[in-house]
Design a protein that fits this description.
The structure holds two protein chains of two kinds. By secondary structure, chain A is mostly helical. Chain A has helices spanning 2-12, 30-49, 60-80, 88-102, 116-138, 140-145, 155-190, 196-227, and strands at 16-20, 26-29. Chain A has one domain (2-227). Chain A is built from eight helices and two strands, in the order αββααααααα. Chain A has a two-stranded antiparallel ribbon with strand order 1-2. Chain A is globular. Chain A starts with a helix and ends with a helix. Chain B has one domain: F1FO ATP Synthase. Chain B has helices at residues 2-12, 16-36, 41-72. The chains are: A mainly alpha, B mainly alpha.
Chain lengths: 228, 74
């Protein structure tokens, strides 16, 4: 039992892989390195998939790619409307990154979203994007005035929401991935042979993909609210 | 001291009750709606999935707090 607790605590901490010798040493965490790996993978896939795009006589790969991108644009058009089209590339990138990083548990690598720093960074980027979209769609003065809608009394609540929205986004993602990770580690240490498989289907695959979807969906919902 | 920590963590996880009941009621209403109008199943499923993920978040907050209590209190 002691061993179990100790092993679990070890897994929960993120180790520093190496230190960049700049400004007195910036420690690079393991989650950062996995993120770089995911970035490399996504960039390579993007480069490979868009080679030789043609207008006539298109290859099967191009048809599939266009169908997928068309589907994604339709989905986001329902959510964001026509003016929100400029945010779709960022949202798709975040969705792909989250889907891949949540699935890392399948390969035995610690998912980078298990690290609170990464989820906080994603949530901060989301809130910056939301406020930027509000300012861009309405102009600065109208955006400032929109804090007092619908009644002037709710203005402090609206200001508070600027902090609560990213907090809930990051905690939801972090808690789900951490919870799944802890349960999978416990199962793997007790019964490492067959039992992890069905649980892994739920925690790693299903839960991971749903959390990625919910994160992106909520961000786009808030953007739509800000653009209105 | 460890008893208090254990009790605190146990109470923190009780937030799961709310999520369980809430999601159960939401799913029952969704199933009723699908039974009443089977063509709308796509939209109902999407709304249900989103609602469940959002409601689950409160249970997850309780879990995270319990974990923090266990790990950071000596």
């Amino acid at each position: 039992m002691e061993n179990l607790a100790k092993n679990l605590l070890e897994e929960l901490n993120c180790d520093t892989v190496f230190t960049i010798p700049v400004f007195g040493g910036i420690p690079i965490m393991e989650s950062m390195v996995v993120t770089w790996g995911i970035m490399l993978f996504l960039i390579l896939i993007s480069i490979i998939l868009v080679r030789d795009l043609r207008t006539q006589n298109i290859s099967k790969r191009q048809i599939i790619l266009e169908t997928v991108i068309g589907g994604v644009y339709n989905f986001f058009d329902d959510l964001l409307g026509k003016e929100g089209r400029r945010y779709i590339p960022y949202l798709t990138t975040v969705a792909l990154y989250l889907a891949l990083s949540n699935l890392m548990g399948l390969f035995g690598i610690k998912p980078p979203t298990k690290d609170l720093n990464i989820t906080i960074a994603l949530a901060v980027m989301s809130i910056v994007l939301i406020e930027y979209s509000g300012i861009q769609a309405k102009g600065t003065k109208k955006w400032l005035k929109s804090f007092a809608e619908p009644v002037a009394v709710v203005a402090p609540i609206n200001v508070l929401e600027i902090f609560i929205k990213p907090l809930s986004l990051c905690m939801r993602l972090f808690g789900n991935i951490l919870g799944g990770f802890v349960v999978m580690e416990l199962i793997k240490q007790i019964v490492p042979v067959i039992l992890p498989i069905p649980f892994s289907f739920y925690f790693d695959i299903f839960d991971g993909l749903i959390q990625a979807y919910v994160f992106v969906f909520l961000t786009s919902l808030f953007i739509k609210e800000a653009i209105e | 001291m460890t008893t208090l920590i254990a009790i605190g963590a146990g109470i923190a996880v009780l937030t799961g009750i709310g999520a369980g009941v809430g999601i159960g009621i939401a799913t029952s209403k969704a199933v009723e709606a699908i039974a009443r109008q089977p063509e709308a199943e796509g939209k109902i499923s999407k709304a249900l999935l989103l609602g469940c993920a959002l409601a689950e978040a409160t249970a997850i907050y309780g879990f995270v707090i319990a974990l923090l209590i266990i790990l950071f209190l000596k």
